[in-house]
Each structure stands twice: as structure tokens, then as C-alpha cells.
Write a structure and sequence with these properties.
The structure holds two protein chains of two kinds. By secondary structure, chain A is α+β, with helices and mostly antiparallel strands. Chain A has three domains: 306 residues, no CATH class; 111 residues, no CATH class; 57 residues, Orthogonal Bundle (Arc Repressor Mutant, subunit A). Chain A has 16 helices and 14 strands. The longest helix of chain A has 20 residues. The N and C termini of chain A lie far apart (83 Å). Chain B is an alpha/beta fold. In chain B, strand 7, helix 9 and strand 8 form a beta-alpha-beta unit. Chain B is globular, with a radius of gyration of 21 Å. In chain B, 63% of the residues are buried. The chains are: A alpha+beta, B alpha/beta.
Chain lengths: 497, 498
């Protein structure tokens, strides 16, 4: 079947989108959800396993209290209610990377219910309602060897790594998000970004979408404009970057519209997302009646967090990101546009740390948003992983403020830092970047410049101070940019007074 | 045959403490007995002579240094093949686990090892503990030592037969609906299902997690108390484990041994009598009730109306849980793997392996449970069954407001002939009519020999039930009854005699 994709603007002329997000978050607890195995990423395959997470006959689960604590803190940060009593349930289905052939999860008794998150897109605030967040265990990781697609069909054989089996997961499920119209793709992205920010702030997960510690499934349907009945949905699995979330919503809207325009019905199914093309392809059929034969896990006792504990945990919550942004914007004196750019670039916490190290908010923004953003972009890494720390930025800026570095020299220091040439001091030393502010050395260069451009000197003598720029430029050139420009200007004006 | 095998575990412990025998001597005596009769009885699936003797030698060395770990240090034991044991196969009586050697010990196994009890071997059982005759073992049935053409009960027929045939003084069993108590009744031995959660289930290959409990299988009430105290207590690896210490059982058994039951109120369960209950069993049961009265107990009749629904609830809850528990046997990580011809997918391998590896009774219960949990049927089946469970708990509560212990026959008949009920699952299920309510409610129960039938000369058991965590009452009343009735089991009454 060839797909007819309807241009995005046209989709909106005839349809209203509704979407929902299921986000799986791996918690960064020391141990797994139901056993004492390390929950760290990257160990030798099948080196972090025990009878329980391998599902060996006779083994039994014990709930990780730290994971419950994280779940409760997440629930509170998402403005949710915390169940007074809830149970784990078995979700029964067969798959080779599921050691027990059931996943220990939660069904109709999630630990968190009825939350929300407000997200802002282009100055408009959308409330995303969160139906539930529940605790569960991750499965093993299967790698299909051979075959073209890397999927199970066509593979010669498959390798299973059970290190991931039993890692604590929180699944956060929204209610259908309606009324976002053309902003649907952006709201979806903004929600995931805001969620990620909250989880980072809570310190409960690495939320590395590239490593799979945060994974999104995007449900989407279209209904005829003005209709209050939701259309048939598709579920696009494993959409694993912010940009992909936006693209997946956009693509599925165009694809659904093409099918509906042709008078055909949407087939309820899961879809695979293709990072390279931004498109989706058919996965497996999925009906609402997928029968997982849920029933309460008889090997675990109910989780009944006391209200005192919940309140203790509430007191540990960090300032909500949106409120924090508003406070920092006021403190830093950034414009709305500057603040939005800073946030979008992932520079907020970096600038906050840089300011805490003593730099001014304007200077911190300048370095992070220009030099360092460019470098991160060139290297295709997150700004936080560009290789320069807030402390180093503050150190460089301190030297600029003290006059021993110019902005131009500072840029060279950053070049050195990005190239891994050592500490700030080592780079200044090795590259000979100290500013020349010694009057003796500068005086000679100034005299030379005055002699070389007598007409300019005349103008300055005549009171045109702006003309000094030409002489300053000459001095800077002569000193290889190492001169303290401010001092040069003072010397010129003194000599030509 | 060494006379040592006729001694109870308590007597063997005393003999070891007094230096009258050694663990090696008495372990060898039991291994000799196994070699002599187990070809007929088939109580064991795996015999570990070498391991048992080396554990016995280590025990003797400790004792010589005055470092005995426990009163039972050096007294050998048999373990039901549903409990994981490092270095010894654990098959659960199923082909699907043939040859599997677990990399870890069940907590109860660890406890008996830490106390120095040599493990003689692993005992036969109905496949995955599903059955009441041990005929559903994939490795052939166990025979009743009293009469080799009779069933030894089930699912723990292996443990009961081993103890009854004097192949082991002690054994561990598991009881999900009567699998310790009913075999105890039909082999003339003592079997105890402790309070749910008071003995760790870690390492017990689950049949139905909310019903299973590990317990002792012995020839005397006192021996059960000794073993029960050893294996009981909190286990951080079992979330359903209770934190109440398991103590006072041996003292209770000794107190009961004096035969004084003055002030004890005993309730005869009205619903566990009448149609379906063999007259010879009822005759022995009534004698036991008379004895309780003579010992000073105040005997009354109590009604537990919801018990009539226990069987129905049990056969929904158990299959539901086991259908999920048994899903892990998929040939991917351990156990039997059958690879069909051609280019089979992982799913094809799973199907073929499960088809070949599971017996009919297991498949029957997986299908039942899968159906009961299915969307649209859950509320009508599993949901209703849980409500009945609540009613049964209420019935127990009300009954225990009136009396201290409840009493009933353990099993509706004496040991039936092998094959008699194999084609009639419902008739087989009826064997557990009296024992199932305790599993649904989590209450403790014991089966004590009540004598032999006037009809076939085979043993009859009487069951005592107590409130949750009041296991000590079973030992007091059980020991009193045992003392008054006198020995029921003796080696000379067995078809596998001296």
C-alpha cells in the first residue's frame, strides 16, 4: 500500500489531532526492582543477574524500597495523588527476553494517579493530564543477529542480555491530549522535555534518551474537525529523542489524514519509528483487548506508603522547573527570548552553575550560547557534554573581568579547553595568551601607531575621541591581540590630550 | 537392617548427643534401607549417598569437638524435589526440568544444611505438585509402603512414603491444598502445614504462591515440632514471610505428650462429614473425637458453611497462579528443549518443548487457569474465587471465637489402588476436600495417625486446624492424641517389612 501523506497544514483544515504519550523511565537506583543485582548500565552481558532477575524456578521478588521512593517523588513532582494502598500485578505474555514470561508491573492499582504537567509552547500554556504512573521491571535486551532489519523476523539468531531484566521502570501515561491543533507536535515535544527536566531535577534517572533510560511511545489519532469522538489510534513505539517525538506526531498526522481522506479506516497497530527518515512503518496489530491476563502478584505484599512518608518525600522535592525558570529569569535579567533560547539549548543549569561560580549572568549566557553551543552543535553532543565545565567558564570570565584576558583571547582559551589541552592556566601558559597591560611595552606600541597615522592623531587631539579606534586596532594588531584594549585607549588619550 | 532406622528423629538426636551412634552410622543405615526397599517404593527421584555421607562425617567431626550446630545435627533428611538444592537435581517430578541442577539453595534447604542435617536425596512427587496420588510424576508413581498397589497420597507421596518406609526419619514436604497432610494420613505419618508465611517459600518452585507452604513430614508429632522450629522464621528473600518468631512448638508437643487437654475447646467441623466420607474413615475419626473428650477437651460441633465452596475457589485460584508460574518453562534458559524440524522460531521451540515437557494434568491446569484469568472471565472466576476465600477466612475466624482447634478427618478415604482415580480428575480432587480450606485461609494444620481402617487395615488420619500463628496448639493437641492412640505405623505392618 502506498502511503499518501497529506501536507501538515491541510491536515488541520479537516482534522483535529489527539495524542497521548507513554514514557518509560529507568530509575537510577543502585539495585534492581526486585533483587539485589546492580542496576548499572554497560556491564558485560549477563554479568548482573541472579536467580530472581533470571526468573529461575523457586526464586522470589522483593520490592526495592528506593524505587518506591523515587516513584512517589515523581508522582508528587507531577502533581499526582499517591495511592494509599496498591499492588503489583503480573502481565502475562511470552517473549524470550522476559525471564518469567510475565512482567511484574502494576495494573489497575498504580502508585501514582491523576497528575498533570503544564507545558508552554510559543507563549501558550497547555495542561497535559497524567492518568497514572506505575512501577514495573524492565525486560532483558535482545539483539537480533543477521537479517536485514535488525528485527526478529529474518534474523539468524538472537542474543539476550538479562542485565537489563529487572531494572526499575516508571511508566508515565498521559490522558489523551486534545485541542492542541497545529501545535500538537510541539506540545508533545515540550511535554517530554518538561518531563525530562523534572526527572533530572529529582535525580531519579539519568533520562538519557539515547541510551534508552527514557523511552517514549506516541499514541495518535485524528478525528474530523469539530467531532468530539476520538478516532482510531496508532501507537508509535520507541521514539527516542525530543526531535523524534515532534516528527513522529507530525508524520502520523499526515499519514492518518491520507488514509482517512481516501475513505479508509485506520488500522489499530503499533508502528516503528525510523530516525533516519522521520517516518513510521507497521509493527504488530494491537487491539484494546490484548489479553495480558493481569492478576495481583501473589509473591509480593501490597505497597502502602504512609502519609507521613509521602509528606517527608514531598519536602525533598526540588523547586519545580517552570517556577525556577521564572525566578532565574528575573534574577538574571534575561529577556523572554533569551530565556527561551537558553532553555531550548539545555544551557539553563549550566548557566546557573556558572553564575554560582561567580560569573555574571550575561557573561555566562554569552559563552554558553555562542562559543560552546556552536562547539556542541559541531560535535553533535549535548551542551552539558561539550567538554567545558561551568567552573572553567567562570574562571575564564574572571580573567576577562580582571583584565588579564580579552574576549578574543578568552575564545582561544575555550578552543584549548575544547581540544583537551589542559586546565585554563595551562592553556594560557602554553599558548602565550596573557594580556599585555604593562605600560612600558604598550607605550612603545602606542607611540608607533601615533607616528604611523598622524591624521588620525590630529583628529583625536581635536577632540574626536571616537577616532581612537583606528589607533587601538593598530596597537592590537601589533601586539598580536594580547594588549589590554582598555588600557591602550587610556594611553592614546593621555598622549594626545 | 540396622535397628537405628526404627528410631524417631528425637531419639536419634539423643543417641548422637550421648555418643551412642554417629551420623555416618545412622546415615549409612538409612542409605542401606533405601537400597533395600526403594526399588519397590520409589520414594526417591535422586539419592545422594556420597553427599549425605560426607555431610554426616562433617557432622561427626563437629560433634566430636563439641560444636554441634543443632539438636538435629547429623540426623538425615529427605527433601521433596520441588525445593531447590545446589548440586542436586530439582525436577519437580517433571520432564521439563529433567537434569536441571539449581545454582542456589531454597532457604529451608539452607537452614537444614546450616543445622548439619545430611540430605539423603530428593523425593518423588506429582508433577509440579499437582495431584493427590504421586501418579502424576513424570518419573513413575511412588507406592504406599503399607501395600504396594496403593497410592501414597500426593503430591508429596515421596516424602511421606520415605518416612513411612523408614528410609528417612525426617522429610520436607510442601502443602498447597493438602500435599503434606493427605499423604501423611494415608501412610500413617505426621504431616504439618505451617501458618502461611511462617516458613520461607524462597526456593520452593511455586505451584500456587498464595497457597504453598513448606512443612515437616515425620513419624511423630515431636519430630515435626523439632523440624518445624528449625525451618521456620522470617526470610528477607520472601516478601510474604511473617516476622513472628516460630518458637514454642517443641515445648507444646512435650506438653501435649502428658495427655492432659483440660480446658482445650475442640470443634468438630460439621461440613466435613457425611456423603463422600468412607465409613471406616469416619469410624476411626469418631474414636479420635472420643479420645479428645476423654483427655479432658471440651468438644463441640461448629459450622463452617463456606467450606462447601472451597474446592471450587481452590480450582480457580490454583490454576490461575500456576498457569502464570509455569510460563517460565519455555526452553530458553534451562530445562528440556525440543527443536522442531525445519526453521523453527523461538515460539515454535517454546510450544514444542512445553508440549513434550508437561504432563496432561499440568496442561489441564494451565488451560483452566489461562481461561479463568482471561479478559471478560476474570471477575466471574478469579474474582469470585477470591471472595469465597474471604468468606472462608471469616468462617475460620468465627469458628475460632468458639473453639481453640478444629478437627476433621484428613482425607475422605484410606489409600486407594494405583490407577483407580487417574481417569477421573474430579474424584482425585475430592481427596483434598478437608485440607484445602486451611490453604485458602493461611491457617496451620496437622495430620496425625488415628489408627487403621477396620476394612482394609490401612491408616486413617485425623486433621487438626488452628488459627493463624497458633501452630503450637496443633502440637499440643496432636501430641496428646498421638499418645492416647498409640503407635499406628510400625515396620512389621508394611509390605516392605524388615
Amino acid at each position: 500500500m502506498t502511503e499518501t501523506l497529506v501536507p501538515f497544514d491541510e491536515v488541520l483544515e479537516r482534522y483535529d489531532p489527539a495524542f497521548g504519550l507513554e514514557v518509560h523511565v529507568e530509575l537510577n537506583t543502585n539495585t534492581k526492582m526486585f533483587c539485589g543485582c546492580p542496576a548499572t548500565f554497560g556491564g558485560e552481558p549477563n554479568s548482573q543477574v541472579c536467580p530472581t532477575c533470571l526468573g529461575l524456578p523457586g526464586s522470589m521478588p522483593v520490592v526495592n524500597a528506593k524505587a518506591v521512593e523515587s516513584a512517589i517523588r515523581i508522582g508528587l513532582a507531577l502533581n499526582g495523588s499517591i495511592a494509599e494502598w496498591c499492588r503489583f500485578a503480573r502481565k502475562n505474555y511470552f517473549y524470550p527476553d522476559m525471564p518469567k514470561n510475565f512482567q511484574t508491573s502494576q495494573y489497575d492499582e498504580p502508585i501514582v494517579y491523576d497528575g498533570y504537567l503544564d507545558v508552554e509552547v510559543e507563549g501558550e500554556t497547555f495542561r497535559v493530564e497524567i492518568e497514572r504512573a506505575h512501577m514495573e521491571e524492565d525486560t532483558g535486551k535482545t539483539t537480533h543477529i543477521g537479517g536485514a532489519t535488525g528485527r526478529i523476523h529474518g534474523a539468524d539468531y538472537s542474543l539476550v542480555d538479562y542485565n537489563r531484566a529487572g531494572i526499575p521502570l516508571i511508566e508515565i501515561v498521559t490522558r489523551p491530549i486534545l485541542g492542541t491543533g497545529a501545535k500538537a507536535p510541539l506540545v508533545a515535544k515540550a511535554y517530554v522535555a518538561a518531563l525530562r527536566e523534572i526527572l533530572l531535577g529529582l535525580g531519579v534517572s539519568d533520562v538519557r534518551m539515547d541510551q534508552g533510560s527514557m523511552r517514549c511511545d506516541v499514541n495518535l489519532s485524528l478525528s474530523p474537525k469539530g467531532s468530539d469522538k476520538l478516532g482510531t489510534r496508532t501507537e508509535t513505539k520507541n521514539v527516542n529523542s525530543l526531535r523524534s517525538v515532534e516528527r513522529a506526531v507530525r508524520f502520523e498526522m499526515s499519514r492518518h489524514a491520507g488514509i482517512l481522506d481516501a475513505g479508509e479506516a485506520i488500522f489499530q497497530e503499533t508502528r516503528h519509528f525510523h530516525e533516519d527518515t522521520g517516518t513510521t512503518s507497521a509493527g504488530r496489530p494491537k487491539s484494546d483487548a490484548d489479553d495480558y491476563r493481569y492478576f495481583p502478584e501473589p509473591d509480593l505484599v501490597p505497597v502502602a506508603p504512609s502519609r507521613e512518608w509521602v509528606e517527608e518525600l514531598r519536602a525533598t522535592l526540588p523547586e519545580p522547573p517552570a517556577e525556577k525558570r521564572a525566578r532565574l529569569q528575573a534574577e538574571w535579567g534575561y529577556s523572554d527570548l533569551e530565556m527561551r533560547d537558553v532553555w531550548a539549548a539545555g544551557a539553563l543549569t549550566l548557566i546557573e552553575a556558572t553564575v554560582a561560580e561567580g560569573a555574571s549572568a550575561q557573561a555566562a549566557r554569552k559563552w554558553w550560547m555562542a562559543e560552546l553551543s556552536r562547539a556542541a552543535n559541531d560535535r553533535g553532543v549535548e551542551l552539558a557534554e561539550v567538554g567545558v565545565t561551568p567552573a572553567q567558564v567562570a574562571e575564564v570570565q574572571k580573567l576577562v573581568d580582571g583584565g588579564s584576558l580579552t574576549d578574543k583571547l578568552a575564545r582561544q582559551v575555550f578552543e584549548g579547553l575544547l581540544a583537551g589541552e589542559g586546565s585554563v592556566a595551562e592553556i594560557i601558559d602554553a599558548r602565550g595568551l596573557a594580556v599585555v597591560s604593562d605600560d612600558g611595552a604598550l607605550g612603545a606600541a602606542v607611540d608607533e601607531a601615533i607616528d604611523a597615522q598622524p591624521a588620525v592623531a590630529e583628529k583625536i587631539r581635536g577632540g574626536n575621541q571616537a577616532a581612537a579606534g583606528a589607533l587601538i586596532g593598530a596597537v592590537m594588531k601589533a601586539t598580536g591581540g594580547k594588549a589590554d584594549a582598555k588600557r591602550v585607549r587610556e594611553l592614546i588619550l593621555e598622549k594626545l590630550a | 537392617m540396622s535397628e537405628l532406622i526404627l528410631k524417631t528423629a528425637a531419639q536419634l538426636a539423643d543417641a548422637l548427643a550421648a555418643g551412642e551412634t554417629t551420623s555416618v552410622e545412622l546415615t549409612q543405615a538409612h542409605l542401606d534401607r533405601i537400597a533395600a526397599v526403594d526399588g519397590d517404593v520409589h520414594a526417591f527421584l535422586h539419592i545422594d549417598a556420597e553427599g549425605a555421607l560426607s555431610q554426616a562425617a562433617a557432622s561427626d567431626a563437629r560433634r566430636a569437638n563439641g560444636d554441634a550446630l543443632h539438636a538435629l545435627d547429623g540426623v538425615p533428611i529427605a527433601v521433596k524435589d520441588v525445593l531447590t538444592t545446589t548440586g542436586l537435581p530439582t525436577t519437580c517430578g517433571s520432564k521439563i526440568l529433567e537434569g536441571w541442577v539449581p545454582p542456589y539453595d531454597a532457604t529451608v534447604v539452607k537452614k537444614i544444611k546450616n543445622a548439619g542435617l545430611p540430605i539423603l536425596g530428593k523425593t518423588n512427587m506429582d508433577e509440579f505438585a499437582m495431584g493427590s496420588s504421586t501418579e502424576h510424576s513424570a518419573y513413575g508413581p511412588t507406592k504406599n509402603p503399607w501395600k504396594l498397589d496403593r497410592i501414597p497420597g500426593g503430591s508429596g507421596g515421596g516424602s511421606a512414603a520415605a518416612v513411612a518406609a523408614f528410609e528417612a526419619p525426617l522429610a520436607l514436604g510442601t502443602d498447597t491444598g493438602g500435599s503434606i497432610r493427605q499423604p501423611g494420613a494415608v501412610t500413617g505419618t505426621v504431616g504439618v502445614k505451617p501458618t502461611y508465611g511462617s516458613v520461607s517459600r524462597y526456593g520452593l518452585v511455586a505451584l500456587a504462591n498464595s497457597l504453598d507452604q513448606v512443612g515437616p513430614v515425620t513419624r511423630t508429632v515431636l519430630d515435626s515440632a523439632l523440624l518445624h522450629e528449625l525451618i521456620g522464621g522470617h526470610d528477607p528473600l520472601d516478601s510474604t514471610s511473617t516476622t513472628t518468631p516460630v518458637t514454642g512448638l517443641v515445648d507444646a508437643a512435650r506438653a501435649g505428650g502428658t495427655g492432659d487437654l483440660k480446658g482445650v475447646k475442640v470443634g468438630v467441623i460439621k461440613e466435613l462429614a457425611g456423603e463422600g466420607w468412607a465409613p471406616d474413615v469416619m469410624a476411626k475419626f469418631n474414636e479420635s473425637v472420643d479420645i479428645l473428650t476423654k483427655l479432658g477437651a471440651d468438644v463441640v460441633e461448629v459450622s463452617t458453611p463456606s467450606f462447601q465452596h472451597a474446592m471450587a475457589a481452590y480450582y480457580l485460584i490454583l490454576p490461575a497462579e500456576c498457569s502464570s508460574n509455569l510460563a517460565k518453562f519455555d526452553a530458553m534458559r534451562y530445562g528440556l528443549r525440543v527443536t522442531p524440524d525445519g526453521d523453527p522460531s523461538a515460539e515454535d521451540v517454546m510450544k514444542a518443548s512445553r508440549d513434550a515437557g508437561f504432563g496432561d494434568e499440568v496442561k489441564r491446569r494451565i488451560i483452566l487457569g489461562t481461561y479463568a484469568l482471561s479478559s471478560g472471565y476474570y471477575d466471574a472466576y478469579y474474582g469470585q474465587a477470591q471472595k469465597i476465600r474471604t468468606l472462608i477466612i471469616e468462617d475460620f475466624k468465627k469458628a475460632f471465637e468458639q473453639v481453640d482447634v478444629l478437627v476433621s478427618p484428613t482425607s475422605p478415604s484410606t489409600a486407594f489402588p494405583l490407577g483407580a482415580k487417574l481417569d477421573d480428575p474430579l474424584a482425585m480432587y475430592m481427596q483434598d476436600l478437608a485440607t484445602i480450606p486451611a490453604n485458602l485461609a493461611g491457617t496451620p494444620g496437622i495430620s496425625v495417625p488415628a489408627g487403621v481402617s477396620d476394612v482394609d487395615g490401612l491408616p486413617v488420619g485425623v486433621q487438626l486446624l488452628a488459627p493463624v500463628l497458633e501452630d503450637a496448639r496443633l502440637y499440643r493437641v496432636g501430641a496428646a492424641l498421638e499418645g492416647a492412640i498409640g503407635p499406628v505405623l510400625s515396620i512389621d505392618k508394611l509390605e516392605v517389612a524388615r
